[in-house]
Amino acid sequence: MKNRMLVLEDGTVLKGRAFGSMKDAFGEVVFNTGMTGYQETITDPSYSGQIITFTYPLIGNYGINRDDFESIEPVVKGVIVKEAAEFASNWRNQETLDTFLKAKDIPGISGIDTRFLTRLIREHGTLKGVIANSDQSVEEMVNRAKASKLPTDQIRQVSPTKAYPSPGSGRRVVLIDFGMKHSILRELNARQCDVIIMPYNTTADQIRRLHPDGVMLSNGPGNPTDVPDALEMIRDIQGDIPIFGICLGHQLIALANGAKTYKMKFGHRGANHPVQDVATGRVDFTSQNHGFAVDENSLAGTDLVVTHRELNDGTNEGLKHKTAPVFSVQYHPESAPGPSDANYLFDRFMQLMDTAKGGNEHA
Q1: Where is this region: CPSase (predicted)?
Q2: Which side of the chain, N or C, has fewer Cβ within a 10 Å radius?
Q3: Are 223 and 124 found together in one domain?
Q4: What is the pLDDT of residue 361?
């Protein structure tokens, strides 16, 4: 295996071994604490522009299968692991992690002390980094990491350019795809919804022409302030059409109603985050992947009410509108990877749509 190195913008150099693609990689280095679910994580469009560090020490041991993709073409910039399993053992396995990354031209580096790297990120915040061959100049790689700017158009890169249907016989849902995980669509399909997936820059008029029962705002990468057009659309429809926002969708609902968001020091990425329902006290363990959060202090004077909080750090995890049929969560109720504790929120969305129509015709 060829020697490679991970060079961070602060000058830290970690030496390891290559797997996957042999090209260089530049991106924001983040960490994910999930013990399983690496296939779903690598194919999650919300990781666009990022290099993922897996904190679990062995990755790839059950291989890659046809069922656990969250997108067809992953957009992650690179993968960092302690140990990459050379052989996969699982009845669903169809190829190894190494062969998958080679096929998708994604570089990986193994042999890295991921516990040290995670502690570094937790202390200093996310860092830009480069995966490169060990014979390249460290000074040049450090300068590249410092000088290179992170992209601001990730949502445009992962969102579709045209609308397309996922037909069903039940409630009609317009799903705005800011970088949608396929598991969100699976949950709507499982409830027989007639889903129309639309681009990130869809207008309120385009949505109304489809006469939907509800609108779903998906997850997605990057800074929510980079899509101002979405805020105008949300403000236009939120009094008339029920809305359910997930992750980025949650942040966009907050911004559209006058609240603010901020970049977190190192974000939440994993499948074990405890979240409490403020009204009931119920605690769900949740799957999360976000580097921005809603500033609760900015909610004063808005029409939004806090519904959920993260128990580890107290950050905001859920909102609802005081008068309009709108609610959102920062975490991923569709799980994949992670627990399905919060799956009931999709049923709550179904009930919200039925109530808005004045009945329960789809129950």
Answers
A1: 1-171
A2: C
A3: no
A4: 52
Domain coverage including residue 210: 155-356
Residues 41, 185 share a domain? no
Q: Of 114, 133, 150, which residue constitutes the final position of a domain?
A: 150
Specify whether the backbone of 126 is left (phi greater than 0), alpha (psi in -120 to 50) or beta: beta
pLDDT on residue 360: 52
- Greatest Cα pair distance, the chain, in angstroms, is 68
117 and 189 co-located in one domain: no
pLDDT of residue 363: 44
Residue 291 annotated in ligand binding: yes
- Token pair, residue 18, equals 């290559």
- 32 and 111 belong to one structural domain: yes
Terminal C-alpha separation, the chain? 57
**Last residue within a domain, chosen from 108, 124, 150:** 150
User: Is 251 annotated to bind ligand?
Assistant: yes
- The residues that are catalytic are 247, 332, 334
- pLDDT of 121-135, one tens digit each? 999 999 999 999 999
DSSP string, 18-62: EEEB-S-EEEEEEEE--SS-HHHHHT-GGGTTEEEEE-SSEESTT
pLDDT on residue 358: 83
pLDDT of residue 126: 94
Please list the ranges in the chain whose pLDDT falls under 70. 359-363
Q: Is there a single domain that holds both residue 214 and residue 81? A: no
Is 349 annotated for ligand binding? no
Quote the tokens at residue 314: 């107290």
User: Is 289 annotated in some ligand binding site?
Assistant: yes
**Is 220 assigned to a binding site?**
yes
Domain assignment of residue 363, yes or no: no
Nearest Cα neighbor of 121 from 224, 52, 75, 59 is: 52
pLDDT tens for each residue of 217-233: 999 999 999 999 999 99
Residues 146, 181 within the same domain: no
* 249 sits in which H/E element: helix 248-256
Q: Which of 147, 187, 161, 211 is nearest to 357 (CA)?
A: 211
Question: In this structure, what CATH number is given to the domain that contains residue 201?
Answer: 3.40.50.880
